[in-house]
Design brief:
Blueprint: E1 9-11, E2 14-16, E3 20-22, H1 38-49, E4 54-61, H2 64-67, E5 74-75, H3 82-93, E6 98-104, E7 116-117, E8 129-130, H4 133-152, E9 157-162, H5 167-172, H6 187-190, H7 192-205, E10 210-217, H8 226-238, E11 244-248, H9 251-254, H10 257-262, H11 270-277, E12 284-287, H12 293-301, E13 307-310, H13 312-316, H14 320-325, H15 342-348, H16 360-370
Parallel strand pairs: 3-4, 3-13, 4-5, 4-6, 6-9, 7-8, 9-10, 10-11, 11-12, 12-13
Antiparallel strand pairs: 1-2
Helix pairs in contact: 1-3, 4-7
Bound molecules: flavin mononucleotide (FMN).
Flavin mononucleotide is lined by residues 23-26, 58-59, 102, 161, 163, 213, 247, 287-289, 310-313, 343-344, 347.
Length: 371
Amino acid sequence: MHPSLFSKITVGGKDLKNRLTMAPLYLGYAGEGGTVSELLLEHYRLMAKSGVAMVVVENATMDYHTGSGSNRTLRADTDENLKGLANLAETIKAQGTLACLQINHAGRFAMADPPLAPSAVQTFGRVPRALTIEEMRNICRKFAEAALRVKEAGFDMVELHGGTGYLLSSFVSPRTNKRDDEYGGSLENRQRFPLEVVNEVCSLVGNFPVGYRFLADEWLPDGLKLVESVQYAKSLAASGVAYISVMGGTYESFFLPDVLRSSRKEGYMVHLAGAVKKEVEIPVIAAGRIATGAFAQRVLTEGKADLIGLARVLWADPEWPAKVREGRENEIIHCHPDCDETCTKLVTKSKAAFCVRWPHEKLQEWKDKMV
Ligand SMILES: Cc1cc2nc3c(=O)[nH]c(=O)nc-3n(C[C@H](O)[C@H](O)[C@H](O)COP(=O)(O)O)c2cc1C
């Protein structure tokens, strides 16, 4: 079934056995303080065993003190976590799956008080402090050091989180970047800092693929839009990133009624990936309720993306790839918006997430583990 979906592809010099990847999904499974817990290992073992070609592990912070989103956000900023991260990479690779880790600075959404951002633009009642150039240099270096740690831990790739309104994307956005120095104003200036991060990361890690999670549209009236973001995508490709993984929205738009409505639809972010793909030669990943094999196959054959990113879709049913491949699609347990975004609500309350669609036994097993 679906030959394109199960065809090989090379990304950043690494061979992927098919076009399916797990898109990063933070579920609050790391230990307190961002350690690699048994629960996290078990979760990623299952995700890797699913048959996807590559698992992109959820965002890990590159600076706990200024850039972590929560107390259960993985830490990639300290050698104390190196052993745990190595264990995580090994757990994924033992299933014959490539392992990638996403690193992030949460910017204005970080726990830090005040949070740091390009400019002091109020967000959910908090006013971040605008970064100084010296602090930006420091963040650049820490991104590169974290990426090197990811390489040393044995992952096959690292992904920079340029989505969700976190620090890198907040520099590109005309809404959150109001700087009047060489890092603000024109798109050329707004993309300068994230491109500096990409360059510093690439030069420190050397021959090691660096992917990029990409914010294509903020879905806010005064936010970043495709017309500019596709230009930024071209700059990223020219800077040597291995792939671009496309998403839309930030915490400020995810819960707006119109966005909630449109993000219920199958493939709600595929058009964004398609727009980026038209502009770049490197592989593009599309995500967002890619619920069926037929739909995923069409995304590839219509040239909207080179790879499929499954996040909640795979978590709800880790047998999705096997069921699709074997023509057992009617058996798929679908992530369904009628659950009222239970997983998102749980993680925003700093709780470990479960999926209400899981079969009763699995749910019970999970609940037993939590007590
Ligand atoms: C609870 C939750 C956590 C997420 N965590 C991350 C993350 O750590 N990094 C990231 O780039 N995207 C993250 N995402 C976005 C997903 O990667 C994906 O783009 C989105 O959920 C759509 O794909 P899906 O419909 O298969 O879930 C998260 C989404 C959800 C719902």
